[in-house]
């Protein structure tokens, strides 16, 4: 058997004699001691007996990178091709491939890998090693597999001037591009860490990225979360020692102090080269890469995350591009976010989050997810959680509270139609703000939550945009939209764009701002409101004032919101994580109905955000105008954003308008905008009438199917009373879990 073990003489020295020797060396030659200790500690603390295993396609630079990493860590370096295969076979790899052919070569290569063993080394695999499952399982047992992810176009360019007779699978009729694409599935199966290697990045830089990635992999302590209402200086030792990780905040939802969770060290940054490496890849690949950087592998391993992302976006979206960008007119582009099963942008988070949640929660407890919705979240969360595996549905259920008279008829029909054995809708005789506030109060009611845990073994969790996991998929589609414009040749990477979003709870807008922080060149984020324009006033004046404000029902119900929950996360960010200030502001809002930002914070805010609003009349006029000139039908929320974009954009750069829902969900308003005189009150009839227009985009497939099955359906309705809501929750728990 082929063995390489790192010789570690320091381990043979007793602790006493080691201390004595170190002391003498430190006193006599302090510089030499520091260098020796740094070298020994860097390799031993990072590797121990584990190996760093470099994996990637031919031409990825595994051998060169491996040598540099080994030099930096002062540990053995092994190249599988040169040091194992060729020595085992007594011939070159290319000769062996010619002698035995493609399939036999893979088998022989795998057998050699099964006989190989090493410890504390840097190992560079061959490009075809990952295609042999047994061999990879063997070598992975004692190593951290690092995938050098190099864009296919870069690999093709690198290999153009090199001999390719060592590349397994390359033959007449099979192109190099085909081989590289085929192998990706195997690389994705085995890696623990991905290192993006875009462009003409130097091997020295790649080596540093590998070491940094391994350090991150081994230290999950770096990626903890805090509440927006906690302050580093004000936290007790007990609070500081009780660390919260991604899996904790996914299940907990809301912080115990009433604040929202944010990453303590902020979001990861991508370099321009890393973003450019994602231009050519699919939406699913972009999502996986971005989420890998935001979710530590100790919480969800890369292989499991890949499986979840594929499940979420693979077959549940009607468009292969998942979130396509369409040119509307002039320098305006639409980011179509309605191709999911329930026809709104909420599907991006809520096809993914249920699977993240199911993976993260402990198996010993049941969970009831509480959701408040102003329209689109309800059906999306019901659909998402109903798609879990049967075993997960037995321990995870969801209840959706929505304003009984505050959503469109089609939205209500859809929420009723999406009810399943573990997913229910409850109409509340109030508005969205009451529903959202009630859920926050229930989460912070320790007597009630404690009672549910003790009596029924059931914990409560949140799936609203107050849950941190809801925001991450939204970051992905904002980044992807920019990359699509680059891919289409509309802009070059680095050129700025503006983004305009119909904004109510501020989650979608916050995600766009996070994408900007992570390196996407977004210039201005434009908030578009309807007549419930508290956010517009706040962004213009710094005064958040609910006194005397009543919620106005509009044709764009998803933004009929007065209290924007995710604004708290943004203010925490621009206030340099001053939890005391955030607590003061939101306590004042709760108790007095208003607060005012300091001038310096307002200045920061206005560097990032601009805002406008439009009336229902302007909204309908925009729908009619766009349809008349382009044949495209905007939904009511997208129309709000279109009106505001027209007013506020300066036309010096492209603007991406988030099209957050399909117009089918708001058929009565759309038919009115198209100036149809008589409108049948039956939602299904309304959709059939709209489909007769043969407009773009066509009627939403999922919505039509849901309404065909629904009829009028049944759902529970309750009064706007906290005790009544809590009683409903207890009854649902008894019926499902007991």
From TrEMBL:
| This protein's UniProt keywords | Amino-acid biosynthesis, Pyridoxal phosphate
- Transmembrane stretches in the record are none
According to its UniProt record, which cofactors does this protein need?
Answer: pyridoxal 5'-phosphate
**Which Gene Ontology molecular function entries are recorded, alphabetically?**
pyridoxal phosphate binding
Q: Does the keyword Amino-acid biosynthesis apply?
A: yes
Q: Which Gene3D superfamilies match?
A: 3.40.50.1100, P-loop containing nucleotide triphosphate hydrolases, Threonine synthase, N-terminal domain
Positions carrying N6-(pyridoxal phosphate)lysine: 346
What are the GO BP annotations of this UniProt entry? amino acid biosynthetic process
What's the domain of life for this entry? Eukaryota
Could you confirm whether the keyword Amino-acid biosynthesis appears in this record? yes
**InterPro entries according to UniProt:** P-loop_NTPase (IPR027417), Ser/Thr_deHydtase_PyrdxlP-BS (IPR000634), Shikimate/glucono_kinase (IPR031322), Shikimate_kinase/TSH1 (IPR000623), Thr_synth_N (IPR029144), Thr_synth_N_sf (IPR037158), Thr_synthase-like (IPR004450), TrpB-like_PALP_sf (IPR036052)
From the UniProt record, give the pathway where this protein acts: Amino-acid biosynthesis
Pfam families for the chain: SKI, Thr_synth_N
Q: Which residues form the Threonine synthase N-terminal domain?
A: 238-313
Quick one: a GO cellular component term?
cytoplasm
Q: Which PANTHER family match?
A: THREONINE SYNTHASE-LIKE 1
**NCBIfam families this protein is in?**
thrC
Query: What family does the entry list?
Result: Belongs to the threonine synthase family.
Name recorded for this polypeptide: THNS1 protein
Organism per entry = Sylvia borin (Garden warbler)
